[in-house]
Hints:
- This protein has helices at about 1-25, 30-50, 55-60, 65-80, 85-110, 115-135, 150-165, 170-195, 200-205.
- It has about 210 residues and is an all-alpha fold.
- The chain has one domain (about 1-200).
- Helix 5 runs parallel beside helix 7 and helix 7 (about 150-165) runs antiparallel to helix 8 (about 170-195).
- The radius of gyration is 17 Å and the shape is globular.
- The N and C termini lie far apart (about 45 Å).
Amino acid sequence: MLQEILNDVGIAVFAASGALLGVRKDFDLWGILTVGALTGVGGGILRDVLLGITPPTSVQHWLPITITLAASLIVFTFHPTFAQLRRSVLILDAVGMGLFATSGAGIAIDHDTSAFAASIVGLLTAVGGGILRDVLANEIPLLLQPADLYAVPALLGATIVGICGTYTTVPVWFWLIIGTVVATALRLVSLVFGWRLPTAPPGRRGHHARA
């Protein structure tokens, strides 16, 4: 039950981040709804394909798409209340990433995957919708931007659920909460303090590469 709730909240939050990006890019209503919907369910569809769930839950049932459309409409209507659209996108994306990373890993465990597979499925669930959103909006995916951590927090949250949910007797719901908090917090802290992974030395990347 908890991972279903986390999954639905993650869908709503990711859809809102997609819709906000659509607003920032001056999309019309259809474009905003489209990018919001695809952002909200993209990671879940990838997860279900990897786990052999056919048709994917987001296609089989009406609730996921309805959640994305409702969240996108709310953003479309009330976006002027967001003082900083880009900051709002980043915050919502961090929350959605944490929720999807852990719920994806939890659903993988329910389908009898190994702890390693659950961690990878959680990671891909977390980043799938965001990559689709950024590609549709002609943005460099946050996953690939060197300015801050993205995949690492998602993988950490998913791994907490994958390993601890498989090899401990503590209920999985506890690790879902811990993993979500850790992944989201690490992502937000990395944004505040500018934490990042090292990049290749300038001499190896060419003269005009980004430092």
